[in-house]
Design brief:
Structural class: mainly alpha
Helix content: over 70%
Distance between the termini: 55 Å
Shape: flat
Number of helices: 8
Radius of gyration: 21 Å
Strand content: under 5%
Number of strands: 0
Largest sheet: none
Order of helices and strands: HHHHHHHH
Length: 219
């Protein structure tokens, strides 16, 4: 094998900077996806039919089409449809946030429906409003049940973030490609970036397990 890691040493700071660039848009996408997903989940369990139909239709579309297609439509079609030259950063946040919301909504919906129905009946008997019931009783219990699934979705989103390299966003994957173009070597840059992705995923996994343990101790 002809391996020479010394060639990528000058590019290491450039590739390491990609960690922050990647985490920046992934973090915003996760927050956006969680908030929108929670709203969609509430729509799905709502007795208002149009809201329920909208949420289910939204989920069907975003789960039924590839993420890369959604990213390409947002990035390439937005200037054509609306005359607005959207940036790669904004496109990435929108595509990943909207896509994640579809999956998060199903996770939250399942978590809410898994809460003992007796809790809802008891709170209704005490005259607690729907909003208070959801915020103070149902959602906290649902969150404990769905945390592993949520963390898995966030980890998946972090790994899939490499897709944004296709629209020129200088994330980790794109930076590795830039290095390969400059050095004409491929294995070393991709291996280094692979280690960085793996490290981020492991850190997220550890954080998720610690939060899960803390929630269990608070029972």
């Amino acid at each position: 094998m002809n391996l020479d890691f010394s060639q990528i040493v000058p590019y290491i700071p450039f590739m390491l900077e990609g960690i922050w660039v990647t985490l920046k848009f992934v973090s915003i996408s996760i927050l956006f996806g969680f908030i929108l997903g929670a709203i969609l989940a509430l729509c799905k369990i709502s007795s208002i039919k149009p809201l329920k139909w909208f949420a289910e239709g939204y989920t069907s579309i975003f789960r039924g089409t590839p993420l890369i297609l959604q990213l390409m439509i947002i990035y390439n079609a937005t200037p054509q449809l609306f005359g607005y030259d959207i940036s790669a950063f904004a496109s990435a946040i929108l595509a990943f946030g909207l896509n994640s919301a579809a999956y998060v909504s199903e996770i939250i919906r399942a978590g809410i429906e898994a809460v003992d129905v007796g809790q809802t009946e008891a709170s209704m008997a005490l005259g607690i409003s729907y909003r208070q019931r959801m915020i103070d009783i149902i959602l906290p219990q649902a969150l404990k049940n769905i945390l592993p699934a949520l963390m898995n979705e966030f980890i998946t989103l972090t790994k899939e973030s490499a897709i944004v390299s296709t629209i020129g966003y200088l994330d980790l994957m794109r930076r590795a490609t830039v290095v390969t173009a400059d050095t004409y070597i491929y294995f070393e840059p991709y291996l280094f970036v692979g280690i960085l992705y793996y490290s981020m995923v492991m850190i997220l996994t550890i954080i998720g397990k610690r939060i899960e343990r803390r929630l269990k101790r608070s029972d």
